[in-house]
Amino acid sequence: MKKSRTFAILALAMLSMSATFTQAAEPLRGKLDSPILFTKRGNYRGIHIYDTCYQWHPGGGIYVLENPADPVEKHRIRAVIDEKSANTLGKGMYFDPDLSYDAKKVLFCFKGEPKGSSSIYEIGIDGKGLRRITNPRVDYLPCDKDGKIKSVYFGRHGSLGAAQDLTPAYLPNGKIVFTTMRHNGLVPCNNTGVAILHVMDPDGKNTYPISVNSETEFDPSLMIDGRILYGRWEYVDKTALTIQSLWTVYPDGTMETALYANNMVFPEAVLDSRQVFSDPSYIISTFSKHNSTPRGTIALIDTRMGKNDPKAVFNFSDPKRPTKDTGEACDPYPITKDLILFSDRNGKRNAIFLIKRNKDNSLTRELLVSDKDIDCHSPILLKARPLPNMRPSQVDRSKDYGFFVLQNVYEGMPKVPRGSIKHLRVVEETSRISKTPGGGPFNQTFTISAALAWTGKNYLGLVPVEKDGSAYFQVPAGKMIFLQALDAEGRCVRSMRTFIQAAPGATRGCVGCHEDKKATFPPLKKLAMAQKKPAQNPTDESWGSGPLDYPTMVQPVLDEHCVKCHGGEKGFAAGLDLTGGWTQYFNNSYENLVSRREVQYKSTLIAGVCSMNGTAHYSTKIFPAYELGSPAAPLAKVIVDGALGHKKRFKMTRAQRDIILAWIDGNGPYHGTWNYTPRAFNLGEWANAKNQLIAEMKAAGCSKCHTTTGRGGRFEPDWFNLEKPEHSRILRAPLARSKDGLGAALCRDAKVDAFRRLRIFSTGRYEHAVKPLDSFPKQVWRKWDKGASSGKPVVSFENTKNAHYQKMLAIITKCRASVLANPRLDMPGGELLAIYGQHRNIYPVRIPKKLPKITAEQLSGGEVAVRWGLTARTWGLAVDVYRSDKPNFEIGEKTKIARTELGVYIDKTALPTGEYHYAIVFDNTEKRSTPIKVSVKVTAAKK
Predict the structure, then answer these.
(1) Residues 847 and 920 sit within 8 Å (Cβ to Cβ)
(2) DSSP helix/strand/coil, 934
(3) Which of 474, 600, 657, 711 maximizes the CB count within 10 A of its CB?
(4) Are 322 and 314 in contact (CB under 8 A)?
(5) Per residue, what are the HEC states of 785-838?
(6) Count of CB atoms within 10 A of residue 884's CB?
(7) Exposed e or buried b for every residue in 603-615, given b needs 16+ CB within 10 A?
């Protein structure tokens, strides 16, 4: 008892530090002139705000407090529906209520089994007329013939349970907006399903998405002007942690627009938002943490102020800290902008409270409804409301494309010279739907990058920008789209770091690039130049289109032009190893180019954004033109301008140069697709070899300078080369220069710098919690192997016969053999074991008008590789593969040998010597292409 009392006193003390509440002269409940609808339910549980729907804590229901203005002891509470009511769904979870505009009916969600789906129902306020609207088990979960759900891990529904229909709200036209996992992906930093905005008819039919998000969306509610107010989680090259901001969209899916906090670190999440109808400039919301339940503080947002301005907020839970997002409060409902119903902790349970903001900004708070046995949530004033406006739909859902009109790309970029922007790059941020093969230490379930890009990007192509800065173009619908403004050299002057969609059949216009959204612009006196022409279709870049994969597309360019000096026979110029030797998760060149050499939050050589949670204060902000990517990247200056004496050292083709610039401006992905092999991404043998090499370093006396203990250690990822062991830095740096071997004589008698030569994480690990940027180590990069501060040269290996050299070489060589026996996708043999990882396509990928050419070749192991490649027109299409020993064979089930989405098929059949004929047919589930054929001569393998 003493311990409990101490805890209670401490809790009260903490509450008093957050806000001061005064006692009202008269009870606040006297201001209530209608009943209160609310739920009793188990409190929100889970480790994230988006996975509470997977939890199971049954009990409670939906209730009405008939006389809230009366004293508490006289309150009358009746059940609308619970497990004991006349109309009941039994024991389970009743949640997410929404009241009809005439206050006669209520939508709600119900989940009736621990690992079941959540369905949407409707019932009258009088407890009559219960009807089911959705049933995920029947509507869209993949089922076996007996009706039983296939594994909940099947396809796109994630690892925590079955699919969910959630957060319904009435639309003025009688339809219902809700969030659902019908067209979702899987969270890139977790493996749970994603619920996004959908609209359906009142009976649950004619359901379609109005969003294309790859992350969860939250709590739709209607505004007076007919827009939907909702929370949107996104991270287009931003942190996975802090961007769950406030957005609006029309019910047809057009004009999604950030309203508040899309470039703020705190609050991390903006949930439960509702417009204050009596003062429409204000929004009431819950500010919450991301790695938490959806509870925190109650905040009032003045939308007339800056959309990322903390001054726009009055925080009812802590007025002195407007963006505070920690606490137990949630589910606010505004009666006025100064009088709010909400749920908050009352002892061990959440209860319903009223809170009033007084003229002097002091607060008066009053308990309204509580239950000692269960939590109380989701209060709604049981009162008829006027119907919001309903704008006629702008979309044509028979179309699978939409249009964009950009009036003047230079508006919002005053320092960018007029006429310098030549193209817009159209990029799709893809959404993974296949299960993860296992991630790495980068907060990713699929190791796309070293905490830079989060998803595989689909480069859809370029559209021209006219001399007046305008552009008019067509884009496929159903995709997460962002745009990049490119100059004549192919450098990205500025990139969107959020996404939009091409609503089907609709045209969306914008004034400029990051123009002031609250500014007024003079009416156009004439059409923009682009509008005088037909809408342009994106055309391929000089290097092509589709996914951009570092190992197969960027590394070959480096091999041809850069490796000779950087890691090849001439040594490690500037300390850079640009070889393709495989590291634990990537390769040597990638590790060097994405290293955070000077500050954690920026990938130095490519001016990339570190998207680690901890560096959110950098990644969330809006960047001006020329600050990110290729315009600021030292690597791009070398590639484009020949900086640092490179003008005559190599000559890349325009396509080779452009592909490196596109990779830089894609924020440094490594794997371009969601494909993988059974081994996934982590080379466990690499880590074992590292430990063996550390032991040998100690034996050789190398640990005098190289401290290899401590968090993260001093052992750098590029110290050994699994592709070409003799090229390993750990062998060459201490080896004397001579004709014997590849000695570089780089070792110096000096301690390794505290920040380390090469580093992805300056603290040695991924930081999940947001930290001040100045808390991360910093350094000024120096020429590490030259100058007096480098120390005297040290040669530990006089030649390659040195015993320590030979032992280290043997360790690396053995490791190489082991990993090649079970290769990763980026290794020789990986193609033979590749598994295609799918991404979401809300609309089927069109069959290309011009079918690609295919090739066929016999590989060294005897297999036949049939290739057609992945482009913006083929990525996501299924391909049926056929084979025969007859030239004019029939395409059918008898000759069909495979179905794949890889862009290549490896035929491992042991074929007799002879000529074989292959054909492929593209299939988008609605249409099939004509067959594309190719022939190849095969030599049977000798037994």
Answers:
(1) no
(2) strand
(3) 600
(4) yes
(5) CCCHHHCCECCCECCCCCHHHHHHHHHHHHHHHHHHHCCCCCCCCCHHHCECCC
(6) 17
(7) bbbbbbbbbbbbb
Whether 680 shows a pLDDT value over 60: the answer reads: yes
Task: Specify the residue for token string 């490519």.
Answer: 606
Return the structure tokens found at 774: 């100045």
Instruction: Write out the two tokens for 592.
Output: 């060097």
In this prediction, residue 562 has a pLDDT band, given cuts at 50, 70 and 90, of: very high
* Predicted confidence (pLDDT) at residue 18 exceeds the cutoff of 70: no
Sign of CA dihedral 389, 390, 392, 394: positive
- Of the candidates 377, 362, 352, the one whose C-alpha atom is nearest the C-alpha of residue 97 is 377
Tokens of 831: 């193609």
pLDDT tens figures, 152-180: 333 444 555 568 999 999 999 999 999 99
Pairing mode, strands 339-346 and 330-336 = antiparallel
Q: How far is CA 924 from the centre of its chain?
A: 25
Q: What angle do CA 708, 769, 11 make, to 5 degrees?
A: 130
Over residues 521-543, the mean pLDDT reads: 90
Residue 181 and residue 161: Cα distance in Å, rounded? Answer: 11
Residue type, 690: K
Beta bridge partners of 355: 340, 365
What does the alpha-carbon distance between residue 582 and residue 781 come to, in Å, rounded to a whole number?
Answer: 25
118 beta partners? 164
Integer Cα distance of 426 and 442 in angstroms: 27
The confidence score (pLDDT) of residue 26 equals 83
- DSSP label at 590? H
d(CA 875, CA 840): 11
Q: Is the pLDDT reported for residue 604 higher than 70?
A: yes
Helix (H) or strand (E) holding 201: none
Q: Is the pLDDT reported for residue 294 higher than 50? A: yes
pLDDT in tens, 724-772: 999 999 999 999 998 878 999 888 887 776 666 788 998 888 999 999 9
